[in-house]
């Protein structure tokens, strides 16, 4: 397939993620207006985002494989096994020690590991939100901890590195706007949605500008 087709396929899961973010923002806005009657769980959003992240990783794996098949060195790497003391080999010699083990390890560490790390940091963020909610529930609407998990997951890795400080900045911005409109308290929902959009949209640019590509798995 042509480079254009690969680029198009690679971007399709990203479109799904943006749709989930916009949909979640709408549901949150609706729940904000109807707090006692409508409390979204965001389960479908989480499943869709995880699916999109996995599909995107699989597309990148297949794309990488097709690139390696175009030259002799790449074709050799596709058939190379791993050997001790590589940690993947130690994990499962039966899988990584056979033909193609090198590419399997490369694909797991380069593409699929980012999905696992995204889930891990999102869960940690969710736990932190739950602890904060127990200590000071007035800053949380029902369901905002689940929304926080979704927003962190949408930001992904290494987007989470930008998402976290963006949440704090967004809290200040949103709080200032709401105070000018006469609202006393600001919950974390809108700041997290805004921070997630920033991380999702500007992560690649910020990584390049700040020289943080080392964080990308």
Provide keyphrases for this structure:
about 220 residues, mainly alpha, elongated, disordered C terminus
In words, what does this structure look like?
By secondary structure, this protein is an all-alpha fold. The protein has helices at residues 3-33, 43-68, 72-79, 87-91, 93-96, 101-135, 144-155, 159-180, 189-210. Helix 1 packs antiparallel against helix 9 and helix 8 packs across helix 9. The chain is elongated and about 65 Å long.
| Percentage of residues in DSSP E strands | under 5%
Which sheet architecture does the biggest sheet show?
none
User: Radius of gyration in whole Å, from Cα?
Assistant: 21 Å
> What is the count of structural domains?
1
Helix content: over 70%
How far do the termini sit from each other? Answer: 25 Å
Global outline: elongated
Reading the helices and strands in chain order gives HHHHHHHHH
| Unreliable residue stretches | 210-215
SSE-based structural type: mainly alpha
Number of strands: 0
Count of helical stretches? 9
Write the layout of secondary structure elements.
Layout: H1 3-33, H2 43-68, H3 72-79, H4 87-91, H5 93-96, H6 101-135, H7 144-155, H8 159-180, H9 189-210
Helix pairs in contact: 1-2, 1-7, 1-9, 2-6, 2-7, 6-7, 7-9, 8-9
What is the compact description of this entry?
With 217 residues, the chain is mainly α.
């Amino acid at each position: 397939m042509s480079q254009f087709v690969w680029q198009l396929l690679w971007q399709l899961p990203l479109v799904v993620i943006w749709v989930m973010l916009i949909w979640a923002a709408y549901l949150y806005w609706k729940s904000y207006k109807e707090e006692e009657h409508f409390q979204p769980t965001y389960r479908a959003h989480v499943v869709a985002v995880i699916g999109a992240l996995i599909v995107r990783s699989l597309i990148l794996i297949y794309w990488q494989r097709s690139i390696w098949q175009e030259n002799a060195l790449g074709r050799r790497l596709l058939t190379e096994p791993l050997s001790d003391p590589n940690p993947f080999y130690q994990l499962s010699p039966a899988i990584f020690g056979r033909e193609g083990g090198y590419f399997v390890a490369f694909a797991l560490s380069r593409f699929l590991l980012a999905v696992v790390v995204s889930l891990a940091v999102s869960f940690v963020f969710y736990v932190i939100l739950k602890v904060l909610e127990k200590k000071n529930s007035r800053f949380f609407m029902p369901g905002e901890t689940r929304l926080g998990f979704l927003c962190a997951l949408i930001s992904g890795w290494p987007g989470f590195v930008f998402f976290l400080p963006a949440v704090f900045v967004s809290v200040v911005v949103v709080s200032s706007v709401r105070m000018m409109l006469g609202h006393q308290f600001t919950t974390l929902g809108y700041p997290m949605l805004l921070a997630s959009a920033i991380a999702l949209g500007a992560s690649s640019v910020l990584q390049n500008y700040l020289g943080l590509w080392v964080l990308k798995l």
